[in-house]
Amino acid sequence: MFNNSVQVSVMANTAKFDREKVIRNAMNLFWLKGLKGTSTRDLQDSLDMRPGSLYAAFGSKEGLYKEALTYYAGLMAERLQNYIDEEDSTLGGIKRFVHCNILESDFPEEAHCFLVKTVLEIYEQDSPLLSEAQTLLKKSEENFTRCFQKALSDGEIPDHHNPQALGSLLQIQLFGLRSYLRSTQDRDAVKGQIEMFFKGLDTTTAKT
Amino acid sequence: MFNNSVQVSVMANTAKFDREKVIRNAMNLFWLKGLKGTSTRDLQDSLDMRPGSLYAAFGSKEGLYKEALTYYAGLMAERLQNYIDEEDSTLGGIKRFVHCNILESDFPEEAHCFLVKTVLEIYEQDSPLLSEAQTLLKKSEENFTRCFQKALSDGEIPDHHNPQALGSLLQIQLFGLRSYLRSTQDRDAVKGQIEMFFKGLDTTTAKT
DNA sequence: TTATTTTTTGAGCAACCGCTCAATAATGCT
DNA sequence: AGCATTATTGAGCGGTTGCTCAAAAAATAA
């Protein structure tokens, strides 16, 4: 945000490309094809940038991938918050988030979470991208937990429930259902399982 | 199985390498690194075979991958049957299968199902490997369903349950828990969720 | 305009990719 | 042993990979 020296003389030549748009496009490509499946040529074509510009802006393919990861996480958090605001119940917002994320995707890449795809693709235990994705997944779960906390204190869920347990349970169901949809293509079965999950919230399960 | 002509003269030179061993090694490599992440050089080194032999035996990298997929599916089905035989309850066998598959893996690749990793990596909708993996996953679920059917008729599970619903539910939980373990590394949380799942079988949930 | 700074371009490098095939080695039959 | 057949070898092909960098273009400041 600020210059660490007195006053950087001036800027010759200002921002040329729309950085957010570029990252969003890159995210979509990586999300669909994976890290190894997306070549720098693919990126050049899709982003309409030449290698020099790409590497000046992001340093490396992995650097761009990392920006795509954080952009994705921000997008999902924002989307969840929007749903909660639109419905005016936290639980209703969560429910709509789950529905939209799993079922209302027409593109195959959206059938699964970009972060989970990342931790499953990358096997090198010391990869910065792996730990970044794991960190973002943890934050995502904490966000769910915070929402359930709110829903509990608003009396939307019976108070014998534990928000942490619900957060991790929701995360697990999301992962499971999205994998299942990708492997079976059976939208109806998945829809039924989602209904069942939220029905269960009003009654039993997850006490910890 | 049979020769389509009268009688193929003779065999000079018989089988030289242990085909099953080669496929098992290939499976482990592919399972860990993925299809695109495993190079033919990796395979040559790990299998101690030169490209000529590899391509004579399997046709292509994808041909070998396909054999690895079916080998994996067979291995898992066999393992489940063994557990069911050892415990002498079907439900106990399923429970042990879930435990072993998810928690007793020391290698990172075993943190997730090879078939699911495949359907998540391959985005080309017309890929033969994608549909092969989907077919094997379907068979796996049918196998679970058959087991639950048996458990139901043996009175191991309350009879208000539906075996199909339990089969797909188990599949979803397996997918979800394994993804979750890979993203959090939290064995205890996963162990707790598994306990909860099987506790739930004795009482509520999954009526279709 | 001219000088200065920054961005963009794209040819191309070294390494690696999946895979081929002529040469060689190994095997079984007679 | 000699022959026929098959398996194995490994140099190396044409193409792709992630990425570099000198040159050209664009933008601002004076």
Give, in order, the helices and strands of chain A.
HHHHHHHHH
**Can you tell me the residue ranges of chain A where pLDDT is under 50 for at least 5 consecutive residues?**
1-13, 204-208
Mean pLDDT of chain A: 89
Number of helices of chain A: 9
Which range does the strand content of chain A fall in?
A: under 5%
Q: Largest beta sheet of chain A, briefly?
A: none
The greatest interface here is:
A-B, 46 and 46 residues
Please give the share of residues in helix of chain A: 55-70%
The protein's oligomeric status is homodimer
Broad structural category of chain A:
mainly alpha
By DSSP, the count of extended strands of chain A is 0
Span of the ends, CA to CA of chain A = 44 Å
CA-based shape of chain A = elongated
CA-atom Rg of chain A in angstroms:
20 Å
